[in-house]
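Hi there, hope your week has been kind to you so far. Thanks so much in advance, here it is:
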Amino acid sequence: MKKTLSLLLGLMLIFSALSPALAEGYELGDVDRNGSVSAADAALILRYLVGLATLDDDQLILADANLDKKVTAADAAAILRALVKLDTLPPSKPTMTPAPTAEPTPTPVPTPFIPAGMKVEGDDYGLKVLEGVNEAREIFGSAPLISYGGSALLLERCIAMALGGVLLGPIVPNEATSKSHDGGKTMGIMCAVHSWEIGSGDYTTLYVASVLYNGTRWTIVRAE
């Protein structure tokens, strides 16, 4: 009996010693822990920030791509920039303790940091997109959206996409993302046609964030 207990105790000590090493074996930015850093990791961070995904303590460490002790859209942008060779992630391996401060549902920031050379479209542009969406909804026999909600809800993510140079797909069914040269009313029609929820869903408000960066327009449109 004593030999059995000693053996079990020894195994427990071995596994307890191995677990931290295994946890620390992932590369910084590999949030989904599949062995490589990809756009899927940036998307997982963005889904977490809007409450559509959960991350455990180790994943929160891996998600802190810029090592500033918090998880924000800036970490998703850092991963995307590294993937397209515009930047590199910090070389140090993340330490699994302590976990960084998490921000699962950040308050929308009216004036986030705007990088040099980037143009952020204002309400006039958003209202043109709304006009295009409503034109398409009329064709589909849907009631028009009655209000424009602004861009603050989506702008930080839109900037992250533009900086990373990688288009991330919609994170909810009632959302559309675009990388194109089209704008205004044409953009609204395109979003309503390509997203059934935006074109025909039972919503009343449209949110639009759009930026011009390095000659390309990046846009996120969401109906609520």
User: Anything to note?
Assistant: Residues 2-23 form the longest helix (22 residues). The beta strands are 118-120, 147-150, 175-180, 205-213, 216-223.
